[in-house]
Amino acid sequence: MEKDNEVTSQGLTEDPPAGDGGYEGSLEKPRWKIVGPGLIVAATGIGAGDLVATMVAGSTYGYALLWAVILGVVIKIVLVEGAGRWSLATGRTIFDGWKSLGLWAVIYFGIYVVVWGFSFGAAAMSGTGLALNGLFPGIDVRYWAMIAGVAGLLLVWFGKYKPFENVMAVLIGVMFVTVVGSALLTTPNLGQIVAGLVPIIPDGAVLNTLGLAGGVGGTITLAAYGYWLAEKGWDTPRWMRVMRIDNAWAYAMSGIFVVSMLVVGAELLYSAGMAVADGEEGLIDLADVLSERYGAFMAPLFLVGFFAATFSSVLGVWHGVSLMFADFVATMRNLPSDDRRRGAGGTYYRAYILWLTFPPMALLFLDKPILLVVIYGALGSLFMPFLALTLLILMNSKAVPLRWRNRWWVNVILALVAAMFLFLGGNELVKAVAPLFGG
């Protein structure tokens, strides 16, 4: 595990107050860096599908749902901060915490991480393949998808955190320039943006609003934050304030990304009464619209940003969720904490990367089996309430030192988030099982 405590010109020295976990005998001060685990978890969670969902919301409702995007940023900050606080305060992984809640949590996560990985692997590779096919149409989407999956495997196979972080930093930079640049190019209406901060739900937009607030920015990848903190070397309570800065900064940046896509949808599509395709194909359509409106150079430029968004999700999941799977297997086998099979680059870590990469390639050639779609939809719809509810229990338990337990207002937010996601999850669950009954 690499420890990354070096000072940079962009760093922020963070001195914890007396009693804030102490320095444990070390004179070294925790330092925050602009690119850290928070920005990685945020970039991993924002894929092409999230960008399309936000763009479509802008093209349908203008700026009316801007406040829901901001609410979504706050929700993710609370959830990810809880996962990070658990890891730093207890020295235990989030799966170890779930295991302490009983067999039900272990069974749920074990099934979820296997089924989700198979389906996500195909979706993530396909999204990246679509972006690459837009840039280089000579190769079919499915073959670009396979190349992207293997490239992701090679980049994270050895489990080294620093090179992984550096590649992610480049992809995040490309995303920022292209997505935010596209938004600025449309010359957004500042008055309408301000009006969009007023919480109003347009007629028939309840599910769209809740989905925008809760669905953009990742699911299982939020829980990977604690593992990336450990890889970074931020692994004791003295890093608590640094972690909070890192998390808040990261989701503020992710908020800029999704707001930018809302602006593009509102200014470029809503105002002109235009529509784009559903799903990731909508970003290909958007590239064409940008090209027609602002010049031919915009299409490839935006497609490069599309690629950065999708491939950052591939890399983030291939690395972070593989760490979670390795911890899951090692914990269930009661392996010691220093067992090499448990960590990055170990046997279980690599086994899950292979699972993410090669079996899903079959789905690139075949329609997804209906049973897999049903199981994936059912489990996926319930993961966010699972995360919110388990954090509500764990972060108020005796396993967490009193000073690091939830404040009352955090408990209120987590309870509301759990209720919101249970409602959304129930709706998605109905849609997932409908095909079994001819719906």
Describe the structure.
It is built from 17 helices and two strands. It has helices spanning 37-45, 48-61, 66-90, 94-100, 103-135, 141-156, 161-185, 190-195, 206-215, 220-223, 225-232, 240-270, 281-294, 298-332, 347-357, 370-394, 408-433, and strands spanning 12-13, 31-32.
Helical content class? 55-70%
Q: Output the helix-strand order.
A: EEHHHHHHHHHHHHHHHHH
Q: Give me the Rg, rounded.
A: 21 Å
Strand content: under 5%
Looking across the biggest beta sheet, what order are the strands in? 1-2
Shape: globular
Spans of 5+ residues with little confidence (pLDDT < 50)? 1-27
- Count of DSSP strands: 2
Oligomerization status of the protein chains: single chain
Question: How would you briefly describe this protein structure?
Answer:
The protein is mainly α. It has helices at residues 37-45, 48-61, 66-90, 94-100, 103-135, 141-156, 161-185, 190-195, 206-215, 220-223, 225-232, 240-270, 281-294, 298-332, 347-357, 370-394, 408-433, and strands spanning 12-13, 31-32.
List the topology elements.
Elements: E1 12-13, E2 31-32, H1 37-45, H2 48-61, H3 66-90, H4 94-100, H5 103-135, H6 141-156, H7 161-185, H8 190-195, H9 206-215, H10 220-223, H11 225-232, H12 240-270, H13 281-294, H14 298-332, H15 347-357, H16 370-394, H17 408-433
Antiparallel strand pairs: 1-2
Helix pairs in contact: 1-7, 1-12, 1-14, 2-12, 3-9, 3-11, 3-12, 3-16, 4-5, 5-6, 5-14, 5-15, 5-16, 6-14, 6-15, 7-12, 7-14, 9-17, 13-14, 14-15, 16-17
